[in-house]
Specification:
- By secondary structure, the protein is an alpha+beta fold.
- The chain has 2 domains: about 90 residues, SH3 type barrels, CATH 2.30.30.790; about 50 residues, no CATH class.
- It is built from 3 helices and 7 strands; from the N terminus they run αβββββαββα.
- The strands form 2 sheets. Strands 4-3-2-1-5 form a 5-stranded antiparallel β-sheet, with no helix packed on it. The chain has a two-stranded antiparallel ribbon with strand order 6-7.
Amino acid sequence: MEARKNLDLRPGDTIRVWQKIEEEKGKYRLQAFEGLVLARKHGTEPGATFTVRRVLSGVGVEKVFPLYSPLVDKIEILKRSRVRRAKLYYIREKVSREARRQLRRTRVIGGSTTTEAKLEAAAEAEVREESESVAAEAGTPEKN
């Protein structure tokens, strides 16, 4: 209890929470949930909680853990990040905005998906081939 009270858990930390999950009657296993701390609420009082977010299979998952819960076995702080907000709820929209932007970049051509980068590379290759053929016809070597 005292160790959890003194645990310096802040928004922006990347942590691993080991949670006890009951399998059968009286049998527990430990499962890790690793992610970014978005918020910490109610300080060090008995009802204190912290919210952890992680992306699993392209889907954002958030869990709210009670700080003093007996089902939370241990909390490991893996990385510290400097943040300028007390609550990092804006991360939710930021991630979804980036995902939407990636989908917009992807185009469907002939039943297969091709990104703009591949299209640009193909266009550059065509231009290069054309300039080489024009230079060969003129009889002058091309300079790179």
